[in-house]
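Notes to self after the Tuesday call (sharing in case useful).
The group wants a holo model before anyone commits to mutagenesis around the pocket. I volunteered. Ligand is manganese (II) ion. Logging inputs and output together so the record is complete.
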Amino acid sequence: MTAEPLSPKKAQPKKPCRPQAARRKRLLAHIGEGVAVIPAATEKMRNRDTPYPYRFDSDFWYLTAFPEPDAALVLADGRSILFCREKDAAKEVWEGFRYGPEAAKEVFGFDAAFPFSSLEAQLPQLLADRSALWHSLGQDAESDARIIRALNAVRGMCRTGKRPPARIHDVRQTLDAMRLIKDAAELVLMQEAADIAAAGHLRAMRACRPGKFEHELEAELIYEFRRRGAAGHAYAPIVAGGGNACVLHYVENDKRLPDAGLVLIDAGCEVRGYAADISRTFPVNGRFSAVQKDCYEIVLAAQAAAVAAIRPGAGFDAPHVAAARILTQGMVDLRLLSGTVDGLVESGAYQRFYMHRTGHWLGLDVHDAGDYKQGETWVPLAPGMTLTVEPGLYIRPAADVPEHLHNLGIRIEDDVVVTKRGCRVYTRAPKTVAEIEAAMQSGRAGAT
Ligand code: GLY
Ligand code: MN
Ligand code: MN
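Result:
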């Protein structure tokens, strides 16, 4: 086959194809004659004059990739309009670069861009004579107040023939549905976040030794995340030694690891806004005891059953149902419960030792956007959805619980994308007993 010579047209450099522009186009088509207003997150103060590290609003980021606060996106008439901070040489000396409307329009591909300071004055005209306003009321008080002022301003124009939108829709519902199915660009970033998070878990496993503190393993995670360019944690990490793992949202991470116990790490990083969410549980001394291994294998089998239940058309709860059955059988085998698996699942008795669900949507938010149920029906899984699979077993000391099982807390969590035929687990950190022991051993070889 001979190569076709490039025509001058083909040889021209293409404008970068921005997934955000495609998403705005979809939303514009959905709102028709309406107008949508999507504000950026506001900066929040931590104390006095020190702000929390700024994190953009996920919806605003999904539609713009514009990283600055004091901004808003307005969609109307097939056009995307950005309002953002103006250039300010003096402020940039202290706070760093800001795009300004002109550069923002070019770089991010908006149809128009204006100073944020002009939004208040322009909003009434932008809302006037639109069939509907699409806005997420209740998300940001300042933005809500601005919208209400603008609506009242339009009402005041009635003698000029202008009318405010007759309907207000929650734009978040539409965006939630869009964000539920990830596009190719999102899946690339989620894979990157997953790879970095997995590297962090591997590093923590290899660094683990009896005598260390939970926070020392947390430090290994953050070192690996930042070293590889992730923004940091996607959520407060859990590094829970021994019985601390039975506190589901344990985040103190300040205790000494128990020599012969397990440690549960639930941690994931954020890459360009996208979260990874991985949990691993491993023995502090590098070798599972027989009891630890028995319990671990039950959770591992539950996870395998859950993953096998994920396919297009299956309900969101299918992995949970599958995992709960295996865990319940395990609880019977361990003499934690007695009765039939059917009966114990039906009555919910298993929830004493497995009290959370088996997963959640994952994306820009660690507990991502998207419905789980429509009425009484679980949302059917579809290709492009991303979710976690995270069964666990948490055994708190009690008089009726065999003592050798006290304080065992285990969770194994991976991230999956639903494919045409099933799903793909895209987080890859040591997971079987043999893989974990080998990884921990390799951390010791040659170490002092
Ligand atoms: N790390 C939060 C969760 O697993 O849901
Ligand atoms: Mn999770
Ligand atoms: Mn997690």
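Two things stood out.
Residues 1-14 have pLDDT under 50 and may be disordered.
Residues 18-179 form a domain with the Creatine Amidinohydrolase; Chain A, domain 1 fold (CATH 3.40.350.10).
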